Amino acid sequence: MTHSSQLLTGPIHKALLSLAIPIVISQLLQSAYQLTDAFWVGRLGPAEVAAVSISMPVTFLVIAIGAGLAMAGATLAAQYMGAGRREEVDKVSAQTLLMVLVMSTILGTCGYWLSPHFLTLLKVEPEVYSNALSFMHVSFIGVIFVFTFNMFQALMRGIGEVRIPLLIVLGTVMLNLVLDPLFIFGYGIMPGLGVTGAALATLVTQAIAALIGIGILLKGRHGIHVRLRYFIPDYSYIRRAFFLGIPGSVDLSARALGQIIMSFLVASFGTVTIASYGVGNNILMFVTIPALGLGMAISTLVGQNLGAGQIERASQAAFTGATWGFVALTLVGTLCFFTAPQIIAFFVPEQPNVIATGAEFVQVMALTWGGMAVQVCITGAFRASGNMINAMVLSLLSQWMFLFPIAFILSKHTALGKTGIWWAFAATNILIGIVSICWLARGSWKHTRLTSQKQEVLQVTEETLRESEDQYYP
After folding, report:
1. Which of 27, 88, 267, 368 could serve as 80's disulfide partner, Cβ 3.0–4.6 Å?
2. What residues are paired with 191 via a beta bridge?
3. Contact 281/365 with Cβ under 8 angstroms?
């Protein structure tokens, strides 16, 4: 039995595990890029750390704008693979690669030239400006490689092949561990490049990963074989991918903007609160990785089964995955609840005020992490079915209707003060978990198939938008 057929006929729990474990490991390894940069740049000085900190949200926002195209390609590839239409899988992959190359070139060029204006808008201090500008310039040059490899990973996940991307990420992360200190501090006749070196090390490793990915797609030995004739622009496909991808881009962009807005609110409570929020948020991001991996696994499993017409199996996979996510992150949250001071102290030793406040943040929200996992897992099912609007609405609800308004009201208009921000995270996790599971149970998402020759994604978008309005504005 092939791996793809196991996804369509084997036990659901086994299929989820076979997909989720390599994806989670890959996600953890990719987080090592940021951890490595933070470790070495932290030894340069506070101005250099600030330069990277200022640059990252801006570059992430630009990357988020184009990320929806990779989601669209992965969704279509999964459903065509489930339907047994391999030639369509190959064509979808080539067209997605073509669009990603064009989009990343445009966004990278715009980001490069607009970098000084971004920094001026953010009112960056003079001692930070030059390093931040250099870091952003190199990062925007590398956007094409980041886009390309992310697209390759998404397509491989779509057809159920998760081991190859994992091996590539492992190799490039190991290379980055060597290149980061070499480029930052120099060695022998090679001069140290400081902050620019950190960005350059990432660019080199991402370029290698992207080129390997393209080579694999061109050779066709791992489930997808793109041929030159498939790169001729197919405007009907581009239109479909556009309407599928735009909600995903809005989703990620809204998250990036939400983080920036929350940072302004937190900053109004002083340095200790900022530091506590930063450490607590880093822990939250790390804890979210298993849920994200499970959500991606659910997306592949649901997409292939919907493509094969196995609707109930797809629904069972979604509910099983959401249950797993809830149980797993609730257990992790319980562990973190009892060890919060020790976890915070690991990141900020000998800072009693930050340890106390950060531990309070973690303890308030930790027991509700299961609700957050439910949202992530169900979002994966919605994206796999082609209902990108559903996934986008859940994200917008979480960030803009729950988290920020609740945080603002509790922190500024009650006696809770900064603690109100922590309780906003807990309330949001509970509310978005309930909304997600109710929407999944409604079941209308199961009847969207993108592999029908007559179905247009524009119709899907309109239908799910109407569903969203009915769900929240009856």
Report:
1. 88
2. 186
3. no
Of 43, 252, 37, 23, nearest in space to 139 by CA: 37
Q: Identify residue 287 by its one-letter amino acid code.
A: V
Question: What residue type is 104 in one-letter code?
Answer: S
The structure tokens listed for 289 are 């990785």
This prediction's pTM:
0.70
What contacts 427, CB < 8 A, 6 or more positions away?
Answer: 402, 406
For the record, the structure tokens of 351 come out as 């800072």
The number of residues making up the chain comes to: 474
Structure token pair of residue 276: 């506590």
Q: Compute mean pLDDT per 10 residues along the chain, 474 residues long, and list them.
A: 60 84 80 72 68 70 71 71 76 83 88 86 75 88 88 79 86 90 84 85 92 89 80 81 74 75 79 78 83 86 83 89 95 95 81 87 96 93 81 87 94 93 96 94 70 42 39 37
CB contact at 8 A, 103 and 72: no
Confidence (pLDDT) at 290: 86
**What pLDDT is stored for residue 453 in this prediction?**
42
3-state secondary structure the chain: CCHHHHHHHCCHHHHHHHHHHHHHHHHHHHHHHHHHHHHHHCCCCHHHHHHHHHHHHHHHHHHHHHHHHHHHHHHHHHHHHHCCCHHHHHHHHHHHHHHHHHHHHHHHHHHHHHHHHHHHHCCCCHHHHHHHHHHHHHHHHCHHHHHHHHHHHHHHHHCCCCHHHHHHHHHHHHHHHHHHHHHHHEECCEECCCHHHHHHHHHHHHHHHHHHHHHHHHHCCCCCCCCHHHHCCCHHHHHHHHHHHHHHHHHHHHHHHHHHHHHHHHHCCCHHHHHHHHHHHHHHHHHHHHHHHHHHHHHHHHHHHHHCCCHHHHHHHHHHHHHHHHHHHHHHHHHHHHHHHHHHHHHCCCCHHHHHHHHHHHHHHHCCHHHHHHHHHHHHHHHHHCCHHHHHHHHHHHHHHHHHHHHHHHHHCCCCCCHHHHHHHHHHHHHHHHHHHHHHHHCHHHHCCCCCCCCCHHHHHHHHHHHHHHHHCC
CB 22 within 8 A of CB 166: yes
CA distance 456 to 251: 22
What is the spatial distance between Cα 390 and Cα 299, in angstroms, rounded to a whole number? 14
Angle at 69 between CA 66 and CA 71, to 5 degrees: 115
Q: How far apart are CA 153 and CA 151, in angstroms?
A: 5
Q: Beta-carbon neighbour count of residue 121 at 10 Å?
A: 10
